[in-house]
Amino acid sequence: MNEAHRGLQAAAQHLESAQAAISKSLAWIKRQCTVGKGVSNEKLDEHQLASFDLAWCAAEATGTRFALDYARKVGAARQGGVVSLEERIALVFCAEALQNIRNRLWARPQSFGLGDADLAALAAPGYGGFCQAHLDAAGLEALGKDVIALNGASGAYLLSDEATMMQDSFRRLATDVVMPLAEAIHREDRIIPQEILGPLTEMGCFGLSIPERFGGLRSDEHEDNMGMIVVTEELARGSLGAAGSLITRPEIMSRALLKGGTEEQRQKWLPEVASGDPLCAIAVTEPDTGSDVSAVRLKATKCEGGWILDGVKTWCTMAGKAGLLLVLARSNPDSSLGHRGLSMFLLEKDSYEGHDFEFRQPQGGVLTGRAIATIGYRGMHSYELFFDQVFVPDANLVGGPEGEGKGFYFTMAGFAGGRIQTAARAIGVMQAAFEKAVSYSQERKAFGKPIGEFQLTLVKLARMATLLTVSRQFTYGVGRLMDKGEGQMEASMVKLFTCRTAEWLTREAMQIHGGMGYAEETSVSRYFLDARVLSIFEGAEETLALKVITRSLIDSV
Amino acid sequence: MNEAHRGLQAAAQHLESAQAAISKSLAWIKRQCTVGKGVSNEKLDEHQLASFDLAWCAAEATGTRFALDYARKVGAARQGGVVSLEERIALVFCAEALQNIRNRLWARPQSFGLGDADLAALAAPGYGGFCQAHLDAAGLEALGKDVIALNGASGAYLLSDEATMMQDSFRRLATDVVMPLAEAIHREDRIIPQEILGPLTEMGCFGLSIPERFGGLRSDEHEDNMGMIVVTEELARGSLGAAGSLITRPEIMSRALLKGGTEEQRQKWLPEVASGDPLCAIAVTEPDTGSDVSAVRLKATKCEGGWILDGVKTWCTMAGKAGLLLVLARSNPDSSLGHRGLSMFLLEKDSYEGHDFEFRQPQGGVLTGRAIATIGYRGMHSYELFFDQVFVPDANLVGGPEGEGKGFYFTMAGFAGGRIQTAARAIGVMQAAFEKAVSYSQERKAFGKPIGEFQLTLVKLARMATLLTVSRQFTYGVGRLMDKGEGQMEASMVKLFTCRTAEWLTREAMQIHGGMGYAEETSVSRYFLDARVLSIFEGAEETLALKVITRSLIDSV
After folding, report:
1. A69-92: average pLDDT
2. Which residues of chain A neighbour B519 with C-beta distances below 8 Å?
3. Which is nearest to A323 in space by CA: A357, A286, A363?
């Protein structure tokens, strides 16, 4: 057994200790919150801080598990005694994650319902010693040097040949077509131009999550997330707003239709979505609801031959250019029904290029849109939408008459896809920022030499490479779970983790650029702005942590 | 002895333990780096990660000291047994800071030269127990509720009557004049308009750090930083770019002239600087030097009656509108002289409003400027400057013939003022973001009630109030030290600490706003962008930590 094996074995053992403490705390919170046969949401709200921290602990523990898998796979292929870069990265990640978990639990054990005995394993010299051994300055400095030598790469991707081929083509497209346009699209707040949409449509990227029999690229038998993930990652490396987010809407739309649509609806719409014509948009969020989907109020009233939509939606990305909107609306006015009063509709509309539009129906309905100016994530344009007596025919109620009242579930099915896809977007943004950080650290001089030769910069680069590489493997791992019909909760975990990590990484990449990092002409400043949206959209981090992750963990503990 | 006294006494005792570990590590690093009689910079660079962390530990320990002072002052004035908000805030701060210090040192004790025995006091149950007791969810939630009730305030300022009066007038000005203009100035990238400059000039804000005998507002006998700090804080609350940074340049300029100028130069220039006419700018940074001032290359060549300046400066804020530039230049080509080859010059120029300018001298010299577009901190405009045979008369060599070769020292004297002033700017930005976070938490609903009623939001607001309030007292405390001619190194500490804290606080304020936090029309999005510059300019955090703070601590250990 060599050094790497020993380290990984120790990490696995300490991870079990960490996991035991997390599970114990979840069980304790569950006991505090159980009223009769169920867990009370109100009681659970009294434990929000602990729940938030536990979601993070669980996400990092899960990330650690994928880091260990990664190291094992690389280790199995390795000859001889030299510890590979990937194994070192995995060990640094494990050390940081285990340390973070311990520090969080120690900060307020009473809020977690944990006593000294529960934390004894985390307080034992072996646990701390493992973390310390892999977080030592000298080790990180050496890792940083090896990372620089890779010139922006950071460890094997371990993809299938097919996924690698897709990666290659989309990486080229991102580098050659997207990157040169990204700055202008951001600074002039332009909408994504045809120069980008054209080749993406040709390459089939809107059909990545759509089964072949509906005109898409994935197998008919089971989900295949790897293609979607890899393509998203490469496009987001080119630009989050100008390319990396284009697949999100078809992703959510197709999952919702596959889950809830009638066969007729699938046959009609999925091939169109797959072909990128029309482009689509998702209208779920409302000004007063945010991530609380069950509170949606936009009204759907039955009329002759269809439904009339009235109300307001917001943050509807791509709504101007899109020709097809997926709209979640309240089809039953009985407010006691909560999310069971919601249905999902498909609205066809004209396509507009501008920041404002007005779509008038022959029936008299009017949909007006106003793009909300944002600090980043430009290129897509997110709209506030006003529905005034907008008509949708019966055929466009998702699921047909059976689908009435099931809109919430179809939305959630779509959103799980949005989350894993967002993790892939976060990785792409990180990869772009990381590449710039590595190259600029070689160019920029301070105190007589390139800053990339200083220990502090080397440590920053080593940590960036570590968090990026494991975030990627974490995303791939969850994608593979989802291929098997599992991993819904893990999709939220990896979204939570990678998005916050992207904020940190882009911040450090700016810092490496010094003053120029703050200039609009320097792309890291744009990556920083783009990264900031990630923890807000597709489920704000607070909602994901409290209402999805910890809630699911508590239910299953 | 009541509860607060006991808590504060415990905090003071644990702070001593933390301080002892920090000092021990500093002494160890010093031993590792001592070659002959001095500390070797090269050797010190081998300990950058530990040095960076130690600078943070020392800054937080110093902040804790000021937090304790604050609680004692408030406690002394208090009647009866109720623990005041300020004391609770101080205790939460101490707990977080002590926990952070311990976690940093524990992460890699070997890199700090610390053994188990050195860390025993930090590992003792009392130390951890103190932190846990004050970081409990219930306590933070209760603090959050009390903070909300204050509606954007967060604990007594403890200012003199005079400073309070200044605070009142400038707060009114910021609210009534600056805030209504701030969004347009940012979104249209305008230069600060006369509507803001006019009243500020009238109120004497450019002369806050200039002695009365030179036309300023401060006493002739000693520095008086409190006025400058309080005014800066209030203006930065209005807007960092459109008001809060106006004083930085007169602050640096006047300190440099008071330190290095001849009596004649002071008499000529200080009254003009104090009157805001001309506005001034500081040209130190160069494209290849960043925070490494000693590497400045802009060439000053002696000529008949003066000097000729040739070269490039960058990030020269306000250079277009300014009529007077303070320029650091290499007056002696012998590169072995390092920072002893630098001199400081005053360059008079015309004032320009635009993003580009060209200033032609009758002697033939040309100074051209190009404003660098930035993601935030707009309103000031930071320029890249090209000096082509620009002439300055002998009278404008700061310090006269004696001043030749002393430009580095005069610059550093100016920069210490820039740092405490930047801490005040960070507080102002935090105050603005905090107010918006508190008010929006009452407006925005999720899951059936205002988000400000949820524990997680309450904890966020409690932590914001804590870090903001103690940052303020830390800044005031260092300002008072500087009034006595001390606190140069502490000015770097408080700059380091408050600027990073402002990044965190504005990020959380955005998060409380949900999607709207990312919209340009919402002011927290601007606060977030503005806050991001703070850790980059006026000494990047890496340079301050390594080259100023830890270096000074090691020299004095």
Report:
1. 88
2. 372-375
3. A357
